[in-house]
Amino acid sequence: MINKISELRMHQVRFLLTCGWFLLIFSLFFDPISSWFTEPNNTLSPLRVVPEICVKVQGVCLKEDAYSLGAPIFWGAVIPIVVFMLLVFGHESWRRICPLSFLSQIPRALGKQRQYKITDKKTGKVRYELAKVKKDSWLARNHLYLQFGLLYLGLCLRILILNSDRLILGIFLLLTISCAIAVGYLYGGKSWCQYFCPMSPVQKIFSEPRGVLNSQAHFGDRQTITQSMCRTIGDEGKEQSACVACNSPCIDIDAERSYWDGITKVDRKFLYYGYLGLVAGFFIYSYLYAGNWDYYFSGNWAHQDGQILTLFNPGFYIFGNSIPIPKIVAVPLTLAGFTYGSYLLGMKLEKMYKAHLLRKGRFISQEQIQHQIFTLCTFVAFNFFFIFAARQFTALLIEPLEYLYNISLVILSTLWLYRTWGRSQELYLREGLASRLRKQLSLLKLNISKFCEGRSLDDLNPDELYVLAKILPDFTREKRLEAYKGVLRESIEEGWANSSSSLEVLQQMRIQLEITDAEHATVLATLGVENPDLLNPEKQRSRENTLRLESYRKALGKIISFHRRRSARGLGSELLEVVEGNKSLDEIIKSNPKALKSLKRQYGISWEEEEQILAEFDRDAEQIRKANILLSQLQEISFPPRPLSKSLRPEVLSALKFLGLSVQQQQWILIRSLLEILESFELTSAATNIARSMGAMKISLLPNLLKDPGDVWEQRLKPQIISLLKHSEENSGEAPEQVEPQEIVSHLEVLVQQSEPMMQIACLYVLYYLDFQRCKAIARQLLNSNQIANAFVEETAQKLTHWATSPDSPPATWKTVEKLVCLLNSEFLRGMKSEVLIELAYHGRAKSYGPNEIISDREKPCQGLLCMWEGEAQIRSTLSSGETIVENFLPGKTLNEIEFMTYADGNPMTVVSVKDSRILEIPTDTFESLLSGDNTFARRVFSKNNSSSKL
Ligand code: SF4
User: Fold this and answer.
1) H/E element holding 942?
2) Which atom from ligand 1 is nearest to the alpha carbon of 190?
3) Residue predicted with more confidence, 753 or 166
4) Domain boundary among 507, 535, 563
5) Ligand 1 centroid to 663 CA: how many Å?
6) What sign does the CA torsion over 894, 898, 902, 904 have?
7) Is the pLDDT of residue 36 over 80?
């Protein structure tokens, strides 16, 4: 809701509020007016002091005089309004108008922020980078405890002095403002709000995961500028992101994401459970101190004269007895006691709730349990807070209005509870992915009007969106893959997934769009080729970072287009010259250090980022950079297609064959991309260097690719380039030497890092027989590096690391791995989901046959799925003309019971023709359950059977 209001308007509101706040602070030092309203003889004012009313503190009536309203308004109205806003309008509403947050941005607005001096070790170049709180620093890890501590300290000070001592309150507020400005100077972004502000824990509790009228950052039209994200107004009057990625995930960009990200962290439990106690302790203390509730509800604590003089008076007055613990000790003791007690109670109740769920047999994720408990905590905290807060003012309302006020609070908090209770992390992720899919669907410009009955894509919920994706006739397989590629790219760019976790994170979407794991691997490889940096595991990605870089990119782009239109001088026109190839970037950087420096500082751009983004404007430099990355990838994944010097068991050879084919697929993608880059170049030294490097790699695939009649590379590339590339052809003509097992091991060490589960399992399998100790070490490395995305691969790696005996006695589960390796080379099953292959391997039975033994015939019909593992068989069927047809059933081939029915004689005889043949038999029930539960599998079976119909 509030996100629809323009930044310009919010800026005005912020400014007015800040002025109002300063006026209030000023009134704390000097206020000759407001006490008029509280004069005892001012009968016109509802706020007047009534001397006849006796409010007792520790058995003695408080002396009442006229007082100024600054402090009572601040404590009794401003703070409750903020809490109310957080729950109802969400975090974004307050953060966009918070005067303190606004003031903390003064150094940024003045361009005066701390910067680190960084000297490039190689070139000696010096640059300055905006200082930010480091992700792994003590502050980043413990800021929630620090903020909670500051909140606790603030509340103690409030009870002891700040509640009614206007002068000290004024100084305290000015000091807080100074601290916010100082933090704004020391660290970039909204570091004050993120890491220091004592109100931040309160904001988290009441506004996460979302307020009643919150906008959603992950769903809907997915604006680039979301919620209360940092933003500025550009030259053209349009809002633009000013994010410098000071925190990730950032509550200002997506409050719900920040909530789910930290839901199981220990500091969140402390925050939610402890805060309940802190609030309870704060209000209850006034009863423990005064000996009655009148003291609190009358609001006298906000204007009590000489409060500072009571610091060493008895801190408790219970059942008419004062307890001689000084107030200065009693207050922190009470608040700490309540906080700790409520934390312990929260932990205990959480355990009891989990035990209760277990007894009832209800299995809910840890995140969901935590969410339900936190939701209840917020609900209780809100209602408890408003039993006390603002009462000195609401008591002035006429009875029906006061009643309405109370009812409204309960209704709003119940509405919040109802909307929040059903949220889950899974739902959030599902909505997020659906919204990415929606974006891709709209980019494809499909005709959806016929299916949506007047609704737009934005109106559809995730389920409706997936149904639509399934039934849209225009949404062909290619378009599905294109849309999936877009979703995958965005998910990786924004840190939702990385190259290994994407397989799992996007699993549901693949099921819905019927995309196989192998297709996922191909799409991933293509993305890696288009943007080699994308899959770099060393790069920490986050939505915040992506936004920051995108904003910098846009800012540069805007300068260019601005100058293009106006043909002005300066950086823009010079960058334009770079785009048009008339100038090098180096010249620009040297001649415009100030202009670039200002942009870089604004977005906190590092040296590498600057180089990369500027290189994007320089097409040739970008192509060379990309080509170099592709060449190193090509070098890395090479796999020797030469015979081994040692004889190995057939399963190992089978796994090697699978790996060889997988590597060839990847090489094919990489080489094609390199050839496309070469095509785009003039004959420069860079182009010849790339071609020479490719030729020197002796890639067996390259000569065939060059001759591919579909791509006609020999016509598309310059003859000099072709001759350099063909160097590999000449080299490949040499007699292949045998390859030593150790060489294979070194290649497998690289290949196993690929996130594709079947490649990982094949690598581990081969390593097991080539170098047992190395295999164990690699399995351990994989487990430690979290590069395994599949549960079976993880289990296998774990078994291997704990397997102490020799490779001659493999673990029992190894049988499934062996069967899996057999299935990997099946043409029919190639590209199937890893889970399906694992299921087939798990249920499959290996059966040996002797020569001339019958596998199936009319008496013993084929059941389930057969996969030839080793050896050979013949399928003999008789046509209606009496002619007999013989087909070979060779290793890697499959037969299924439906396929058998397509033969003219129904059940042809299948006989083993080579001794010691082995067949992997998948039982009928497994085959049928896969047919009914996996659309891709069923489609594949039926299309195979249709194409091979022998009728
Ligand atoms: S991460 Fe970006 S949007 Fe969030 S507070 Fe920091 S600078 Fe602002």
Assistant:
1) helix 935-947
2) 5
3) 166
4) 535
5) 42
6) positive
7) yes
